[in-house]
Amino acid sequence: MTHYAMPDRKSWEKEWKEVSGHALVAVNSATSLDGLETLRLEYLGRKGRLTSLLKDLKDFDLGDRRELGGPSNAFKEELSAAIDAKKAELEGAAQDAAIAGTKLDLTLPGLAPAEGRLHPLTLVMREMTGILSRMGFSWAEGPHVETDHYNFESLNFPPNHPARDMQDTFYVDAGSGVPGSILLRPQTSPVQIRRMEAQRPPLRIMAPGRVFRHEAVDASHGAVFHQIEGLYVDKGVTMADLKGTLLVFIQSLFGPKAQMRFRPSFFPFTEPSAEVDMQCILCEGSGCPACKRTGWMEVLGAGMVHPNVFKGVDYDPEVWSGFAFGMGVERIAMLKLGITDLRLFYQNDLRFLEQFK
Ligand code: PHE
User: Is the pLDDT of residue 100 over 90?
Assistant: First the structure.
């Protein structure tokens, strides 16, 4: 809306004096975005006071237009720039106020993304299979659900052997230990038979995997645990090869001071058989709760492959000989990591698991 009636020079100059004298001061002292917008409309809107002044210049003669047009156009630029600057200032202040209102502490460190890692048993198993693989043992696997045939019969277990009892073995079917029944394998030894059936000698395999036993769970026994089976068949393999292989293995895993001892034992599929103990590394042999104060811990069973086992897979026992061993991964991992209760491996407590890398 125009504030002066006629576009004559006198009233134009009166209005111009007012506008140029007040507009900038008003803009610079605006305290809100709304107030600023009102001022913008008042001076620079389509019918604003400065807009009207500039528009009315067209009715003046050329001399007046030149004289008045320069300063009034320059003032329009100046006023627009002042409005933009004030707008930016007020918007910044509004943002600061909003941030202060939410109490954000921008100096706090960000959240570190959770880092995944391997289970301690996996780490130890990888180390064990790594050593064996560098000694020439190649990877072999067999099913968790096995038949009586592979788990017992072909391993020379007599029909009435106590290990076939339901007390020790989980049966999947109703039969318990009768030929043809199906079970959760209580040892990795059936993989020996499966590999020998599939491959002519010589042969050198390791078979890592899960095994299952009908067992009361305590600090050193689990119903589910892991074994690594080893089998080496060639001409002229002796018990000395077995001892040498196991000593190199144990010292690679635990260092050159690690000690082991063989105790005579019995397994149907090896003859002679031995149980192998490792000197307790927690107490270095002096006796502690972990080794039941004996200074030694049983870590594996081993022996020379029984001729009946060879005969069953059509290997000639007069030509070929071999050794086999089966070690408990949890037992070895406990020694390696200094853990006295095997159940910790299965409780998935992050405070425990996060200690191992
Ligand atoms: N399978 C036996 C066990 O679970 C260990 C073993 C493996 C013994 C190979 C001798 C040879 O106790």
Answer: no
